[in-house]
Amino acid sequence: MSADRSLQILLDELGRLPGIGPKSAQRIAYHLLEADAEEARRLAHAILQVKEQVHFCSRCFNYATADECDICTDSTRDTTRICVVGEPRDVSAIERTGSYHGLYHVLGGVISPMDKIGPDQLRIRELIGRLGAEDIQEVIIATNPNIEGETTASYLARTIKPLGVAVSRLASGLPVGGDLEYADELTLGRAIEARRTL
Ligand SMILES: [Zn+2]
């Protein structure tokens, strides 16, 4: 394969990554060309390592390297509360606040009729299963404060309340239409502490 062709393949792959435009792809590609082989090997290894070793926790669907994630297996966590989020990155955002010590459940998305995502495409059945199997007293719904997040929150509240489990939602104060992962830690921490019962 020619040098041009092999560089082009790298540029194409880099360009597929989120947030990397053609200019950034070029900068990274030339950096890697000039870097020593060891640096390039470390990057390639790190990519393969997350793909091969990180999968979903069998209980909460957060990222894990064992059957269950570090939070599910942490015996100091409050096991009577589940915080429901859309994506694993939302778990990280809430963990950074230090304001929450319960368990999580990652839905793997939110209800979005436009994208043809309904409750059956999300891990809601698994959540209901946990409510039956674990001693859960409160479900805190922490989906993003946008239309899909609110739709998902009201669906969950309607489904869970009849089971006799308290359901709450993050307090307002988070930027409407925004993403939890971009909220600052103080605001997000306060929204968890001041959550309201649904
Ligand atoms: Zn877990």
From TrEMBL:
Entries under PROSITE patterns matching the protein: RECR, TOPRIM
Keyword Nuclease (UniProt): no
Sample GO molecular function, one term: zinc ion binding
Task of the protein: May play a role in DNA repair. It seems to be involved in an RecBC-independent recombinational process of DNA repair. It may act with RecF and RecO.
Protein name as catalogued: Recombination protein RecR
Source lineage: Bacteria, Bacillati, Actinomycetota, Coriobacteriia, Coriobacteriales
Residues annotated as domain Toprim: 80-175
Keywords on record: DNA damage, DNA recombination, DNA repair, Metal-binding, Zinc, Zinc-finger
Source organism superkingdom: Bacteria
Positions annotated as zinc finger (C4-type): 57-72
Gene Ontology biological process terms, A to Z: DNA recombination; DNA repair
Entry's transmembrane regions: none
Family to which the UniProt record says this protein belongs: Belongs to the RecR family.
InterPro entries referenced in this protein's UniProt entry, alphabetically: DNA_Rcmb_RecR, Rcmb_RecR, Rcmb_RecR_Znf, TOPRIM_dom, TOPRIM_RecR
